[in-house]
Amino acid sequence: MIRDTFIGKGDPLSSTTELAELHELIGGLRRCVTSLRSRYRDTPAMRRVVNDVQRILNDVELLDIDAGELDLGRYTVDQPGEKIAIPDTQYDSDFWRDVDDEGVGGHSRY
Fold it and tell me: Buried (b) or exposed (e) across 3-19, using 16+ Cβ within 10 A?
């Protein structure tokens, strides 16, 4: 059984522990399906089980890709970019023509 992992709370997923356990469980799932298939052959119920397992494995593959991207994000170093000076002077009033102030809503000119 996969240990409870609170995504979004507490510690991040451990790429060495939880993902390794997930891969072990996937291997067990494949072995079980192979065993069941040899016993029940090509029955409609067995085809449904195989289809269900294939969907699960596809989803897990996507999960694995996403987890890999999260892992890569943990080790990237932000490079300082070019600093752009923004003047404190007033903008020309034409710059803001026909623009609504966020959070205030539209202003009627009636």
Answer: eeeeeeeeeeeeeeeeb
Q: What proportions of the chain, in percent to the nearest 5, are helix, strand and coil?
A: 55, 0, 45
CA dihedral sign, ordered 37, 43, 47, 48: negative
pTM score, two decimals? 0.47
Residue type, 66: D
| pLDDT tens by residue, 47-91 | 999 999 999 989 888 887 887 777 655 555 566 778 888 888 887
The domain locations on the chain are: 18-75
